[in-house]
Design goal:
This protein is an alpha/beta fold and 288 residues long. It folds into two domains: 198 residues, Aspartate Aminotransferase, domain 2 (3-Layer(aba) Sandwich), CATH 3.40.640.10; 76 residues, Aspartate Aminotransferase, domain 1 (Alpha-Beta Complex), CATH 3.90.1150. Helices cover 41% and strands 18% of the residues. The chain contains twelve helices and ten strands. The protein has a seven-stranded mixed beta sheet, sandwiched between helices. Strands 8-10-9 form a three-stranded antiparallel beta sheet, covered by helices on one side.
Length: 288
């Protein structure tokens, strides 16, 4: 990251996200995130638990991407009043829950707004590797140079067994977080096994190679899906329109995936998705 950082390793992405948010937002504060953010919909109340009650303010944006304008819409509606929860942090996801990727300048625009309003800035990077493989910039340009204070650097979705890195670009934020990690039961006695996974992923840029393989597989499926695509495919998630009958036809051929919104399915490719299996799925999509 081309700068001094403080790193804490934890076994799950939820732990990384929530410990980061607890460092950036007090119990009486609020966190602005997208209404489809993982911390809002898929972490079982953990953000509120770890922050001891912080409120999530929900913002809009295409493809689960926040913009300065959508964030301002939320912020400007909150009066400076003791009766109202005051925002203290912003959290974005890169790549997003719909597989969209922020460009460094987009992150920097949000970072500038966070600085202007005195807010902490967190990036949920469960798919940070996929975003970096897509953009090809320096990790520094995507994070601290753009104003990010804390990054949940994900490895589990990219080939690791159970290891995530919580990175603070303001190292003093880690001072209290190490105690929160212990209090939460997340300080493993054999934490070296988490560190070993992370070191292996970083060695020779394996993390980027794995992410590129997953992105490339998703691109093959996107090409097959054509106008069925719900969102542009920029990482390793493919959302496409399919009737229940069409989804059943794909399952009958042995493919497994999530049903999403009405008439939509979600396909996720992995670092180790076999090329022949991806080809078979692409052919099956074309035949729908």
């Amino acid at each position: 990251f081309e700068t001094d950082v403080a790193v804490l390793w934890v076994p799950t992405g939820t732990a990384a996200n929530c410990l980061a948010l607890a460092a950036l937002c007090p119990p009486h504060g609020g966190i602005v995130c997208h209404r489809d953010a993982h911390i809002q919909n898929d972490e079982g109340g953990a953000p509120e638990f770890y922050t001891h009650g912080a409120k999530l303010f929900l913002a809009d944006g295409d493809g689960a991407k926040l913009t300065p304008d959508t964030i301002r819409t939320v912020l400007d509606a909150i009066p400076d009043d003791v009766h109202r929860v005051q925002p203290r942090a912003i959290s974005i996801t890169n790549a997003t829950e719909y597989g969209r990727v922020y460009q460094p300048h987009e992150v920097a625009e949000i970072g500038a707004l966070a600085k202007e309003r005195g807010l902490g800035f967190h990036m949920d990077g469960a798919r940070f590797a996929n975003a970096m493989a897509r953009v090809g910039c320096s990790p520094a340009d995507m994070t601290w140079r753009a104003g990010v204070d804390a990054l949940s650097f994900g490895f589990v979705k990219n080939g690791a067994m159970s290891a995530e890195a919580l990175i603070f670009f303001k190292p003093d934020l880690a001072a209290v977080t190490q105690y929160r990690r212990k209090r939460a039961g997340l300080l493993l006695s054999k934490g070296r096994y988490l560190a070993a996974q992370i070191l292996a992923m970083l060695d020779d840029d394996l993390w980027l190679a794995n992410a590129k393989a997953a992105n490339d597989a998703a691109a093959r499926l996107a090409a097959a899906a054509g106008d069925r695509l719900v969102h542009p495919v920029e990482a390793n998630e493919v959302f496409l329109r399919a009737t229940p009958e069409e989804a059943a036809a794909l399952r009958a051929k042995g493919f497994d995936f999530y049903d999403w919104a009405a008439g939509e399915i979600r396909l996720v490719t992995a670092w180790d998705s076999p090329a022949d299996a991806v080809g078979l799925l692409a052919d099956a999509i074309r035949e729908l």
